[in-house]
Amino acid sequence: MRRADRLFRIIQRLRRGRLVTAADLATALEVSERTIYRDMRALIDVGLPIEGEAGVGYLLRASLDLPPLTFSRAELEALVVGARLVRAWGGGDLAVAAAQAVDKIAAALPEDPTAGPDSALLFAPGEMPAADRRTLDVVREAINRRHVLEFAYRDVEDRSSRRAVWPLGLFFWGKVWTLAAWCELRQEFRNFRIDRMAETHPSPRRFAPVPGRTLADFIAIACGERDRPQEAGALAEG
Questions:
Q1: Is residue 151, in this structure, part of any structural domain at all?
Q2: 151 and 215 assigned to the same domain
Q3: Residues of the chain whose pLDDT is less than 50?
Q4: Left (φ > 0), alpha (ψ -120 to 50) or beta: where does 30 sit?
Q5: What is the pTM of this model?
Q6: Residue 50 falls within a domain, yes or no?
């Protein structure tokens, strides 16, 4: 964890208004007490109203008022463009979350019409079909919960098959999403286009990471950092 992130988390814990010991902070942040003592000294030195001492505990005076969340114009544009991309080409659940995130960003900004989300003149035209949005939601949930995913698939030559795969990761290629997975039928890594998947649902079966079948292994093969088990298109499905 970066020191800046650690200091931020220390402040958030102190803002709860209770006495916090260095031992508690060290356990929560997975660092030594000596590191916490150095961090507390740094926070006090920059003027934060922290009371307490080593061996006793620390308390943040209630008078502290942190400044509101602010973004530079470039940071704001990056966030808004990302949200617009997700709304246009993400799953239904993520599209809703992206819209809510933009609303929260707007609520946290100062009342300056030149700095709001609507001032980001970068757009993501087009929209993902509703059926593909639903499929993407199912696939993302299966990845998060490590459920084997079952679906019917139609490849580039219009051949149909049924698959059971270990879903590992989703990749966006500009209007096309692909699923990286370990295919139980082929006993190999495969790429599957979301828009060619149908009857997609998670199986009750779950899978655990297995060396040689992880997303890191998939990426290493795709990037040429590791030999493919079968050179004839081990990652391709079409």
A1: yes
A2: yes
A3: 230-233
A4: left
A5: 0.63
A6: yes
